[in-house]
Amino acid sequence: MKEHLRRFAEGFGIAGMRIPERSPSTRAALALAEHARDRGRLHEARHALMDAFWRRGEDLEDPAVLSRCAAEAGLDAAAAMAALSDPGLVARVDAMGREAARAGVTGIPTFFLGRRRVVGCQPYEAIAAEAEAAGAKRR
After folding, report:
1. N or C: which end of the chain has fewer CB within 10 A?
2. Measured between alpha carbons, how far is 94 from 99 in angstroms, rounded to an integer?
3. 35 with 83: CB under 8 angstroms?
């Protein structure tokens, strides 16, 4: 799987992608992303988190990594870190996880195409074929 991911990333011009030995709990990273969403900085936070994990091989469970990602996203790092324990934000992240489980999400990304589903890192053509099988028309 690691070699498949490396080749897939290289196809998008991403060389030297780091693939961690274990998958971290992303609950805190998701909470950081939701905090960023509330401040109009979701794209920036997502970019910082993805770079930390995939390009630098950093641990998304490490508060120092999350703090730096918050700052890279243009957020007040101290406020962002405090928000990670906000009960409302934690409840929102937990609710999103429950909704994903109810919908049948078993991997990331998951694309829902009508009643069809594409899970995981797939080439464009595989996703397009499933979309067409679900009734989509190519442009």
Report:
1. C
2. 9
3. yes
Closest CA to 52 of 64, 38, 36, 37: 64
Q: Which residues pair with 116 in a beta bridge?
A: 113
- Domain with 118, as residue range(s), is 104-139
User: What is the number of domains present in the chain?
Assistant: 2
Q: Which residues of the chain carry a pLDDT beneath 70?
A: none
Q: Read off the pLDDT of residues 19-29 as tens digits, 9 standing for 90 and up.
A: 777 788 899 99
The residue behind tokens 């442009």 is 139
Q: Is 37 in the same domain as 96?
A: yes
